[in-house]
Write a structure and sequence with these properties.
alpha/beta; Rossmann fold; 4 domains; six-stranded mixed β-sheet; 20% strand; globular
Length: 628
């Protein structure tokens, strides 16, 4: 394979904080690498170094000559005054510049130079390039090409920057959290685009489905070193666990040997002559190895929810629109105790507006939300808490409370509580502007949970959080003794934590789906296939001038459920809920590390049976729900 990039003995530190030391790796043609590390371990810093936007202490970064490289930053920026069109085609590539010129002329009133540009487009054979660019802009829903970049939201700017990277067709693409601010439709399109494209890729993302389906190699920064795994995310999880187990075994072996050597050091002072010097040196080297410890600290979200009554909220004839755009219309809903709802839909369909109406931040045009007296909301928003960047971490938390109420009369000091969120004492006294993006989000999550809410409303909680924190957050939400609404484009996260979905299609069209995102996606694909078959059948009849007959599905929709089917329909809801609970319990057991191989095989077989049963019963439930 052709080598595109070689990193040799690279070291980077900020003062006393060492991010990575003498790391070496390369990227070759066709490799698609996912970069994983805890927040603050240096993922973004490494990408910035490779892109030439940040210095390093020592080592070398060497690219192949004339390699085309595209870099999507976590927080991209463009010079003020550029239009969206100019930003999308912001490149030194002559063909890209020509297409930008063509698009600008076509969108304006002055077409005097059009003939000249058309000739140049023909000579440069730029039409295929232009079609690809149009497809990318359309898939990322970038339509207002004259808007100035300084007026865009962070999410809009990220999509423009992503379009810019893809349009320039680089040979090596470097992406920092590419799925942030993309809706599910865009994420799935990008997933397919990168999977099919013959490019090399280095990418940081928290989206585990995205990692699994796009990357053929995983690279992890752990304890200032690089570890590489030739496989996708699922393979990485398996091999990483093996590496940790081997490391722990080596430490245990070193400790056992150290005891024997220590006994020799104490009992044999006369043996410490020149002959034994090598053994004494080996003893000190062994002592150094035995003292190594893996930092197994994890975010611990052992925060108790306050009591919540049986009445949560009722939406009564709620309607909301912005000019011609309808968000909800005559919407009614009774939210149940301990319900966990996921909200999905494309950008602009009204998901965040719905949440803000529930929280009282936006008034509905008509109708109301009747909130229970015991409900205490905890709101984690897309925008995040507006921290004073010059404050210290501990002071920002103390501004909210000096102690955290853990329930049953127990309290915890702020410093101890921050420790649970992986903010070590020295980190607690850092200024907030020194934190990484993910660490700021983790601090924000800390400030939400310390208020002991019993109804969590999380709007895009997965953006910028590392995968370790996400796993812990998922476990916490699965056990959370309260209510939950999650707005997220992270399919893996939604699959793990919600009971059902409220799907926003746009123009006030909503659907309550009884299952997680993967089940919804399977149902949607099947439903779309049925519609295509019905359309094809109708066209065929029209061509043959055959009189249109009601199809089988239309006939069935006219009937009502029998008493027996009604009872089956009701029991299916109970069965599906019980199976979902069993699935969650099995997942916790299988990830605990406490099972033997035989037990693991047994649980693995059972979870396959449970998933099959959930799918079968859900499809039957959907079939009966058409007539309920």
């Amino acid at each position: 394979m052709i080598s595109y990039l070689q990193i040799d003995r690279l070291t980077k530190s900020f003062g006393d904080l060492l991010l990575f030391e003498e790391i070496t790796f390369g990227i070759a043609q066709g490799q698609k690498i996912g970069l994983i590390a805890k927040n603050g371990a240096g993922k973004t810093t490494l990408l910035n170094i490779i892109a030439g936007k940040e210095d390093y202490d020592s080592g070398a970064v060497v690219f192949r000559n004339d390699l085309r490289v595209g870099y999507l930053e976590q927080s991209p920026a463009y010079p003020e005054g550029l239009t969206v069109l100019e930003a999308c085609f912001y490149s030194t590539n002559e063909t890209v510049r020509l297409i930008a010129e063509y698009e600008k002329v076509m969108s304006g009133d002055d077409h005097s130079q059009l003939n000249e540009i058309l000739m140049r487009m023909d000579n440069e054979k730029a039409w295929d390039y232009e079609q690809k660019a149009k497809q990318i802009l359309g898939q990322l829903k970038i339509y207002n090409l004259d808007q100035k970049v300084e007026t865009l939201s962070g999410g809009q700017l990220k999509r423009v920057a992503l379009a810019n990277v893809l349009i320039t067709e680089p040979e090596l693409i470097i992406l920092d959290e590419p799925t942030n601010h993309l809706d599910l439709e865009m994420t799935e399109w990008l997933e397919g685009y990168l999977s099919r494209a013959t490019i090399s890729l280095l990418m940081v993302t928290h989206d585990r489905y995205f990692l699994d389906r796009v990357c053929n190699e995983i690279m992890e920064i752990d304890h200032q070193q690089i570890y590489q795994y030739k496989g996708n995310y699922s393979y990485y999880l398996e091999k990483r666990q093996e590496r940790i187990a081997t490391f722990n075994t080596d430490i245990e072996r070193a400790n056992n040997l150290l005891k024997k050597e220590l006994d020799w050091m104490r009992r044999q002072p006369q043996a410490r002559g020149t002959k034994a010097k090598y053994r004494i040196d080996a003893f000190y080297e062994l002592e150094k190895r035995a003292k190594q410890r893996r930092d197994n600290a994890q975010v611990s979200l052992d925060v108790k929810a306050s009591y919540i009554g049986s009445k949560i909220f009722e939406a009564e004839h709620v309607s909301k629109r912005f000019d011609a755009i309808k968000i909800v219309e005559d919407f009614n809903y009774v939210f149940a105790r301990y319900e966990k709802m996921g909200i999905v839909g494309n950008n602009g369909t009204g998901k965040s507006t719905f949440v803000k109406m529930l929280l009282g931040e936006v008034e509905p045009d008509s109708g109301r939300f009747d909130i229970g007296e015991t409900v205490r909301f905890g709101y984690y928003s897309q925008e995040g808490l507006a921290f004073d960047e010059e404050m210290k971490v501990i002071d920002a938390v103390r501004d909210i409370a000096e102690f955290v109420d853990l329930g049953n009369g127990n309290r915890m000091g702020v410093s101890q509580f921050l420790n649970y969120f992986l903010f070590a004492p020295e980190k607690q006294h850092d200024y907030i502007h020194k934190l990484s993006g993910g660490e700021k989000r983790r601090l924000y999550l800390c400030t939400v949970l310390m208020r002991n809410p019993n109804f969590l409303v999380l709007d895009e909680p997965t953006n910028d959080l590392d995968i370790v924190t996400l796993n812990i957050l998922e476990e916490y939400l699965q056990q959370f003794k309260g209510c939950l609404i999650v707005v997220s484009h992270d399919r893996y996260f939604m699959d793990k934590v919600v009971d059902h979905l409220l799907v926003f299609y746009g123009n006030a069209e909503l659907k309550d789906f009884p299952g997680n995102y993967t089940q919804y996606r399977d149902w949607k694909d099947a439903d779309e296939q049925l519609k295509k078959e019905a359309e094809a059948s109708q066209i065929k009849r029209q061509v043959n001038n055959a009189p249109e007959k009601p199809n089988r599905q239309e006939k069935e929709q006219k009937k009502k459920l029998t008493y027996k089917e009604q009872k089956e329909y009701e029991s299916l809801e109970i069965d599906i809920a019980a199976l979902e609970t069993e699935k969650s319990e099995l997942e916790v057991l299988m990830s605990s590390g406490s099972l033997s191989n035989d037990e693991l095989m047994e649980k693995s077989q059972r979870i396959s049976e449970v998933l099959e049963a959930i799918e079968e019963k859900t499809m039957r439930w959907l079939e009966l729900s058409e007539y309920a």
